[in-house]
Design goal:
The chain is built from 5 helices and 7 strands; from the N terminus they run ααβαβαββαβββ. The protein has 156 residues and is of the alpha/beta class. It folds into 2 domains: 1-30; 36-155, Glutaredoxin (3-Layer(aba) Sandwich), CATH 3.40.30. Keywords: Signal.
Length: 156
């Protein structure tokens, strides 16, 4: 009986070690989107905000939505300058994401980890994700609160 218990214990230990050995590389190899949850504060009636949430989810991000009557207090807490405000505010990986920022730029932000407060697509450009206007109107993604000042992070 003690030999069987010893064998079972040894087998269980090997299985546990194998699980740990195989799970660590899988977690490390996962994209930032799968590792970071995006928290979004938005109006419950805003269709374009819901469109941006769907955009982020389809890009592989896990998204937790907070429907609130007034997003302004969250913008103030997150340090969003007035000139970069939009309709919703999100937090991910210690950064603020304001407005209709493309998922690819959020992924890049999480990979590069610049010293900054976050990203913004100021206003509500018709062609930004979630707006989906397809007008050809150009817009910029701004990195704000960065060392050396705010700067254009991407152009579309």
């Amino acid at each position: 009986m003690t030999i069987r218990r010893s064998l079972r214990s040894a087998a269980a230990g090997l299985l546990a070690l194998g699980a740990v050995a195989f799970s660590v590389p899988l977690v490390a190899a996962m994209p930032a989107a799968a590792q970071e949850e995006v928290e979004v504060w938005k109006s419950p009636s805003c269709g374009c905000c819901a469109g941006w949430v769907r955009h982020m989810q389809s890009a592989g991000f896990s998204v937790k939505v907070h429907d609130v009557d007034d997003v302004q207090p969250m913008k103030e807490m997150a340090g969003v300058p007035d000139q970069y405000a939009s309709c919703h505010t999100a937090r991910v990986g210690g950064y603020t994401v304001e407005g209709h920022v493309p998922a690819s730029d959020v992924r890049r932000l999480l990979a590069e980890r610049p010293k900054a407060r976050g990203l913004s697509v100021p206003g509500m450009p018709a062609d930004a994700p979630g707006m989906d206007g397809r007008t050809g109107e150009p817009y910029a993604v701004v990195l704000f609160g960065a060392e050396g000042g705010d700067k254009v992070y991407a152009r579309y």
